[in-house]
């Protein structure tokens, strides 16, 4: 966005001497290419040329040779290091004598950019002064650990704006643009201004320091005699020297300054005037994170919130925020759901009766008014109380009973001080559907309360609690809807991390998880096809989508899966799935939804972002199931959305997430299908959609899918 578009001749003077060395010379070339990003290179605007100098100057290309930015940058990449002494003064005299080769003869402003370590073997004072007399603007750019005092002699005034450091290429490109804007470019990008700030220049200098003393022998005035003495011993040492300075940089207003993202969304700037909102779970109905969920079921719902000392005031406030955000996400203007809130410690009270509020606003105000209680944690007593008093029916006519399903969502992070099993059974026997939400610390107790691990929602950290909103919505609405997709057509691929980072013991757990997951699907040609890929540094197809046509055959094949034990590359695994598994040649069926489930410890994910996006762009859903600690940002980029990322704290806990993962897979299996994604046509055939069908347009091939030559 920030580039100088004025008529301008720019000549690079690139130090190719031995003091720079080949490695730093390559960095200088890269830096020169980055500086070109700040220039609008065109025949009528900015022209660029380059001279390499060492013992003698050498013209690499004149200013009129390449007239697009891409051509200039490609030519810079091909420049070869020459070596020799550092004759900066001779190079400057060459420019003064020859002018800017291919330039416009001083009819436009001329800019000379010297990239050097400043260690010239001849004087540069006179030619630098002549440059100023000729009104040539000189930028001096330091490479490696330069001699800044010599670079200041070369640079135009004010030197703070014309001396740059190649160590930070983006910062230096900004500095070049900022200085040019104040003189020749004149137009600053909208919403941007040049500001100065303190900075420092660094260099390595050799100093002499006292290392100690040693005995030395000296002569004596007396014949046949010597005199001993202590002599100092010095050694040379390289030290880092910092020179304070000021830097001038262009600063642009951030489009996220107005905080456009609602409901806890994170704003990510894209350029100077655009932004993207990363929305929390349950939001994303529009670009500003409006609520997008709806409950899609009619129930009587009671939140039972732990208000004891065990959860602390902070935990209680977090539960209040969670309930509010959940209700904001799922309650529409005409929501049929009736909601209440109870809280407990040693005792139970129901400050918000089920169905008491008819609109969301008054309900939110009542939730805000709830106060922390402290005291003991008697979860068993609370469950028994809400079974008896939590759903008081208030029908219009006394003989009309409310027959909606009754759901209790228990929110706790503290172990109960009284037994819960019998009280929970009492509640379930009174037709209450119990859902437990808490940290892994209380997982066992929550499962004891709900009677089913599927109805237990466990979060890994406080922020992760809010990511569980869609899961809670599904759990509430599963009260009357049996889960599973035994009759849903699906092409499913498991990609399993078999690297050394996972280890053999944990790999066997992953293998067992895949095996038990397959029992949820009806495997045959017409319903679900399953493929299995294992990967380390490379990926291997254990069996393809069309290899096995029965559950028993798949289960038997899974038992033979080998452990690889090398490094992990999730990117190569997803590329393998895209190019060698999810293809018509390997059994993928057009018109059938396609899902990849990646089971990993989070290692080797850096190269997986682009292949995952490629799969999604071709209609393949990518679920990432990560076990243990891993970088959430990278995993989110691979999954594409928090809804497709499942974080499991340990391999032992993986079994508890199986129903959730299967449920999400089945949801995607019901999504609308694009018959041309992924492309069913082979050999570069083009897929053309028709009403409820597709056809392949072949070029040099024949057959329905361009499979025959």
Automatic annotation (TrEMBL):
Q: Which Gene3D superfamilies match?
A: Laminin (2.10.25.10), von Willebrand factor, type A domain (3.40.50.410)
- Domain (EGF-like) spans 253-290, 672-707
Q: Entry's InterPro entries?
A: ECM_Assembly_Org, EGF, EGF-like_Ca-bd_dom, EGF-like_CS, VWF_A, vWFA_dom_sf
Provide one Gene Ontology biological process annotation: calcium-independent cell-matrix adhesion
GO MF annotations, alphabetized: calcium ion binding; identical protein binding
Q: Which domain of life is it from?
A: Eukaryota
| Annotated ranges, domain VWFA | 9-180, 300-476, 491-665
Compartments reported by the entry: Secreted
Kindly state which keywords UniProt assigns to this record, in alphabetical order: Disulfide bond, EGF-like domain, Repeat, Secreted, Signal
Kindly state one GO CC term assigned in the UniProt record: basement membrane
What PANTHER family would the database entry show? Answer: COLLAGEN ALPHA, VON WILLEBRAND FACTOR A DOMAIN-CONTAINING PROTEIN 2
What is its quaternary makeup? Answer: Forms monomers and multimers.
**What protein am I looking at?**
von Willebrand factor A domain-containing protein 2
To which species is this protein native? Tauraco erythrolophus (Red-crested turaco)
């Amino acid at each position: 966005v920030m580039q100088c578009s004025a008529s301008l001749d720019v000549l690079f003077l690139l130090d190719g001497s031995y003091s720079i060395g080949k490695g730093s010379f390559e960095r200088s070339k890269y830096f020169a290419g980055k500086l070109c990003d700040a220039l609008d290179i065109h025949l009528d605007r900015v022209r660029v040329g380059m001279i390499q100098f060492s013992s003698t100057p050498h013209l690499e290309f004149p200013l009129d040779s390449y007239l697009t930015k891409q051509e200039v940058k490609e030519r810079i990449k091909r420049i070869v290091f020459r070596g020799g002494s550092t004759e900066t003064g001779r190079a400057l005299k060459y420019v003064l004598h020859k002018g800017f080769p291919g330039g416009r003869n001083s009819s436009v402003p001329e800019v000379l950019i010297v990239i050097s370590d400043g260690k010239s073997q001849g004087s540069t004072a006179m030619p630098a002064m002549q440059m100023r007399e000729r009104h040539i603007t000189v930028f001096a750019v330091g490479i490696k650990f330069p001699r800044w005092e010599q670079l200041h002699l070369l640079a135009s005034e004010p030197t703070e704006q014309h001396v740059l450091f190649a160590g930070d290429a983006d910062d230096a490109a900004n500095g070049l643009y900022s200085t040019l804007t104040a003189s020749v470019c004149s137009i600053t990008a909208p919403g941007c201004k040049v500001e100065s700030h303190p900075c420092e220049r660094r260099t390595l200098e050799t100093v002499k320091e006292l290392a100690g003393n040693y005995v030395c022998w000296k002569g004596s005035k007396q014949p046949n005699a010597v005199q001993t003495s202590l002599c100092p011993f010095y050694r040379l040492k390289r030290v880092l020297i910092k020179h304070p300075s000021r830097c001038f940089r262009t600063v642009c207003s951030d489009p996220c300054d107005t905080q456009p993202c609602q409901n806890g969304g994170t704003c990510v700037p894209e350029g100077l005037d655009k932004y993207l909102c990363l929305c929390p779970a349950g939001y994303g109905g529009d670009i500003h994170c409006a609520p997008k969920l709806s409950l899609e079921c009619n129930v009587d719902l009671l939140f039972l919130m732990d208000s004891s000392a065990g959860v602390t005031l902070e935990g209680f406030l977090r539960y209040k925020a969670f309930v509010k955000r959940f209700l904001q996400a799922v309650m529409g203007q005409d929501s049929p759901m009736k909601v209440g809130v109870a809280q407990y410690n040693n005792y139970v009270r129901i400050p918000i009766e089920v169905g008491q509020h008819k609109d969301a606003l008054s309900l939110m105000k009542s939730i805000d008014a709830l106060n922390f209680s402290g005291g003991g944690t008697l979860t068993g007593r609370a469950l028994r109380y809400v079974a008896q008093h939590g759903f008081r029916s208030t029908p219009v006519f006394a003989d009309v009973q409310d027959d909606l399903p009754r759901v209790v969502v228990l929110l706790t992070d503290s172990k109960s001080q009284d037994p819960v099993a019998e009280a929970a059974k009492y509640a379930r026997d009174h037709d209450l559907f119990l859902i437990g939400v808490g940290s892994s610390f209380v997982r066992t107790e929550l499962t004891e309360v709900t009677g089913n691990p599927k109805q237990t929602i466990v979060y890994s950290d406080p922020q992760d609690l809010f990511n569980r909103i869609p899961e809670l919505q599904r759990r509430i609405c599963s009260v009357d809807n049996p889960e599973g997709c035994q009759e849903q057509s699906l092409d499913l691929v498991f990609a399993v991390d078999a690297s050394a980072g996972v280890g053999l013991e944990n790999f066997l757990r992953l293998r067992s998880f895949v095996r038990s997951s397959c029992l949820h699907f009806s495997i045959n040609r017409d319903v679900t096809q399953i493929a299995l890929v294992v990967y380390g540094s490379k990926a291997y197809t254990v069996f393809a989508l069309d290899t096995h046509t029965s559950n028993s055959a798949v289960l038997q094949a899974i038992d033979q899966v080998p452990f690889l034990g090398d490094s992990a590359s999730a990117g190569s695994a997803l590329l393998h799935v895209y190019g060698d598994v999810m293809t018509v040649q390997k059994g993928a069926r057009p018109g059938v939804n396609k899902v990849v489930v990646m089971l990993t410890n989070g290692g080797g994910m850096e190269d997986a972002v682009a292949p995952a996006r490629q799969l999604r762009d071709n209609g393949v859903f990518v679920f990432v199931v990560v076990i243990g600690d891993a970088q959430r940002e990278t995993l989110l980029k691979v999954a594409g959305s928090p809804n497709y990322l499942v974080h499991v704290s340990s391999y032992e806990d993986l079994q508890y997430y199986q129903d959730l993962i299967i449920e999400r897979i089945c949801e995607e299996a019901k999504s609308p299908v694009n018959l041309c994604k992924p492309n069913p046509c082979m050999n570069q055939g083009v897929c053309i959609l028709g009403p409820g069908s597709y056809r392949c347009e072949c070029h040099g091939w024949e057959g329905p899918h361009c499979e025959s030559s």
